[in-house]
Amino acid sequence: MTHFNLVIDPWIPVRYEDTSSKLVSLEKLFKDSASIADLDCQAHERISLMRLLVCIAQAELGAPDSPEDWGDFGSDLESRAVAYLKRPDIQPHFNLFGDGSRFLQGIVNENEKSYLATQMVFYFATGNSPTLLDHSGGTDRVLTCDFLARTLLAYQNFFVGGSMASKVKGNGPSLKFLHAFVFGKNLKKSIILNCLDAETLADLGINMGRPIWESNAQASTSTYLGRLVPFSCKVRLHTDRIHVWIEDGLAYPEFPESRETTATIGTKGDQRFLLRADLGKGIWKDLHVVLNVQQSGANTLAAPLSLRSHMSELEGGELHLWLAELCKAKDAKIIDLLESRLSVPVSLLNDRGRAHYESGITFADIQSNQLYGAVKQNGAALKNENPPTDEAKKQFWHALEAQCSVLLQIAGTPDILNGLSFGEGHDAWSIAVRRAAKEAYDHVCPRQTPRQMQAYAAGLKVLFPKPKKKKAATT
Questions:
Q1: Is 72 buried (19+), middle (13-18) or exposed (0-12) by CB count in 10 A?
Q2: Domain that holds residue 127
Q3: 475: in domain
């Protein structure tokens, strides 16, 4: 197939409210957005697609003046987005093939060496290096048009170079930070909840700009709409759907020069940094940082901008968050992907609820350190120079991730602690943390021989030390 247009041809996987899953075009997606429950794709595709959908929505609708002006903004999204995409000066830019404009592609020297299109797929094997789920590296696989379109969009967002693109510099703007998206009752509401108002953008000195398919390309690298759908490298798809060519694209300034709107800015002393997913402990551990929308001074806009922009709409009930990061190693490889969907009590957006959540994480950190010490003590007693401390901590944090809802419930209604701190009483979170630590310790520390039993008992004293007696007050 050499004729494929993303506006009218199906390529986006979605799940309708009746649970049916379909591939839809951009036109169909916006028309049905109020009856579509969610996207139905992998995390890196979801991030890239949400950025595209928000970009299209705000390219047509603009932005409300301030966070208090959302009102009926987007009520006519279905008709206006479709009308925008069907404009004769817009729709041709969404062609996947052809001699004219192409979606996120440029003119390249086709006499140069071409590469397999599968090398754009992060989880596909290449050459003689199989992956866990793919053993077809190096073969000429013909990719479907819908898969090619999603792959191209994700590749531009998360471009990291590599063997195919060693001559191309820079990174895609979606790399090296944890993304946070707000989700609503349907896809239409989700798109609107991730749009931003003009005041929020102005406070950060970010220009609205125009999408890459409308604007001067170089001028778009620092604007809001220009960065949402990036052109990190000049890719050209071969009509055989097997090969691609690649050359230099645009260089997108990174933090602190430019701010991605779905990023969270953490602080440590005077240092500001992009919050990253913790591969060892999970995303939920840093939720209190993501939710910190009530900061003051220079850090006021440190939380993801959609939270700040839609605060007035998030009062009462629950906040539905989806967080993910495609994790990059130093050698320009994608090594892992973390994602998490959390329903958060809106009370955690205030200082008191967030402080209780953070104190629950602090208690878990203390128990994690005691687990480390306990396994080390067990290893020392057995003359084991390399005790499995990492394995124990990994199991501990993974077990707690499954209990995250317990901490969220307590942090959302902190009065149930009766004034006690975590670890001082018998609240559900303290019990869950101790149980996870004990199970992780039992898993890595055998106790089948008398010597192992002695070592186990020695480590157990470190895992659960006796509380220190408080000194009596003197009169």
A1: exposed
A2: 1-348
A3: no
